[in-house]
């Protein structure tokens, strides 16, 4: 049976375990991944219903039809079995037919996970890994692209000089770290005196010369300096939080920013570093990175991103369908599974009315549990919205 409320199994770097988490496109999952969701749901539900059909045919139950439908905008599949033939079978046979969808979802998730974790081995002859995050695609018109920005195929190895990037996970973690830290640079006073730009407009720090300069402030004071960013970073990379951390004749300065705008220095292999002034989220949403660096120039980059993303969603959605349909809940396979299990084990000892009472109690309890978990999950997602 198709599950309307989808849950996904996600492994997060900051958590030690895996949890079921509500899926809300545009909130905790990118809205532009809608095609992945729809295809994964269609494949997972189709495989689920295919499992029912195969088990039914194997045990002599006629399949009247198999098809697809759309619930709101969500694609799903269905299978229609011969009800009288189904009910004439033993409880054990009925259980195998009803639970076949769950087992097929587990099998599909296992296949997707195997392919995903085999990528390092399968792609080894053509790609290398662990050298950095490889830019596979850039959003056109974003502040991080352009002649002086990132290019497709760039291998990113470091952010802001102190955060090493080896893959796309460390890339995301480094961007989060930048958002949470606010450090400056130890710069000699002589450099400031020689390189400082004085604007004609005293009300502005850099004024008309803001293309290559940024306004820096001396930590602990109200002094402001308009300095050339690239020249400063080329010569001085020592970080600081106050001037006392710097050696003699140096002061601690940092770009004047708010809670969201940050200076991001992106180091690349075989290319000069890229400077970005803005919100790290723009980088995260505008740049698609992969773990694989091609050994040959003709090899595709963005295809690997599509392939891995699709496998992740298939694994997550298929496993979520398996979990939900295993729970004794109204409108889900678990409702019929618990009924057959109770009949299978309690038939010789308990009257039909009591068996029905037990089955109904477990089903309503399971339905309440699913409803509460879904409600709490959505509430937690909306309350704890993360930037990326």
Output the keywords.
single chain, 388 residues, alpha+beta, 2 domains, 6-stranded antiparallel sheet, 5-stranded antiparallel sheet, 24% strand, elongated, disordered N terminus, MBTPS2, Peptidase_M50, EC 3.4.24.85, PDZ_sf, metalloendopeptidase activity
Structure description:
The protein has two domains: 204 residues, no CATH class; 168 residues, no CATH class. Helix content is 43%, strand content 24%. It is α+β, with helices and mostly antiparallel strands and 388 residues long. The two termini are 33 Å apart. Pfam families: Peptidase_M50 (PF02163). One of its GO terms (molecular function) is metalloendopeptidase activity.
Q: Main β-sheet: number of strands, strand sense, barrel status?
A: 6 strands, antiparallel
Strand/helix succession: EEHEEHHHEEEHEHEEHEEEEHEHHH
**What's the N-to-C terminus distance?**
33 Å
Count of DSSP-assigned helices: 11
Number of domains: 2
What is the alpha-carbon Rg in Å? 29 Å
The overall pLDDT, averaged over residues, is 87
What characteristic shape results from the CA principal axes? Answer: elongated
Strand content: 15-25%
In short:
Pfam families: Peptidase_M50. By secondary structure, the chain is α+β, with helices and mostly antiparallel strands.
List the helices and strands and how they pair.
Elements: E1 7-11, E2 18-22, H1 34-58, E3 63-71, E4 74-81, H2 83-88, H3 91-117, H4 119-122, E5 127-138, E6 155-159, E7 163-164, H5 168-180, E8 184-188, H6 189-195, E9 213-218, E10 224-228, H7 229-235, E11 239-240, E12 250-255, E13 262-268, E14 271-278, H8 280-286, E15 287-294, H9 302-326, H10 333-346, H11 352-383
Antiparallel strand pairs: 1-2, 3-4, 5-6, 5-15, 6-7, 6-13, 8-11, 8-12, 9-10, 9-12, 13-14
């Amino acid at each position: 049976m198709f599950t309307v409320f989808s849950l996904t199994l996600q492994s997060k770097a900051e958590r030690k375990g895996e949890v079921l988490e509500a899926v809300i496109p545009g909130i905790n999952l990118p809205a532009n991944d809608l095609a992945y969701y729809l295809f994964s749901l269609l494949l997972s539900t189709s495989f689920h219903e295919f499992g029912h059909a195969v088990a039914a045919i194997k045990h002599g139950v006629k399949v009247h039809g198999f098809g697809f439908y759309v619930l709101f905008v969500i694609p799903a599949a269905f299978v229609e079995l011969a009800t009288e033939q189904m009910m004439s079978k033993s409880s054990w046979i009925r259980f195998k037919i009803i639970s076949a969808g769950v087992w097929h979802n587990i099998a599909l998730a296992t296949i997707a996970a195997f392919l995903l974790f085999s990528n390092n081995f399968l792609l080894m002859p053509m790609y290398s890994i662990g050298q950095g995050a490889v830019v596979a695609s850039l959003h056109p018109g974003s502040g991080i692209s352009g002649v002086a920005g990132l290019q497709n195929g760039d291998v990113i190895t470091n952010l802001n000089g102190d955060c090493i990037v080896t893959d796309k996970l460390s890339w995301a973690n480094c961007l989060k770290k930048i958002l949470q830290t606010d450090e400056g640079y130890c710069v000699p006073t002589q450099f400031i005196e020689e390189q400082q730009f004085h604007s004609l407009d005293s009300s502005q720090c850099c004024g008309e010369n803001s293309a290559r300069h940024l306004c820096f402030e001396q930590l602990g004071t109200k002094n402001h300096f308009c300095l050339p960013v690239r020249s400063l970073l080329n010569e001085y990379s020592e970080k600081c939080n106050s001037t006392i951390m710097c050696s003699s004749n140096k002061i601690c300065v940092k770009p004047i920013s708010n809670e969201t705008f940050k200076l991001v220095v992106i180091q690349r292999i075989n290319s000069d570093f890229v400077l970005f002034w803005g919100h790290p989220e723009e980088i995260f949403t505008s740049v698609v990175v992969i773990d694989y660096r091609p050994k040959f120039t003709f090899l595709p980059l963005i295809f690997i991103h599509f392939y891995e993303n699709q496998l992740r969603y298939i694994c997550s959605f298929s496993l979520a369908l398996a979990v939900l349909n295993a729970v004794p809940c109204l409108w889900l396979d678990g409702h019929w599974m618990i009924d057959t299990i109770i009949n299978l084990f309690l038939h010789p000892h308990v009257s039909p009315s009591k068996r029905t009472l037990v089955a109904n109690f477990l089903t309503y309890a399971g339905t309440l549990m699913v409803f509460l978990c879904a409600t709490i999950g959505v509430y937690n997602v909306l309350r704890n919205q993360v930037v990326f």
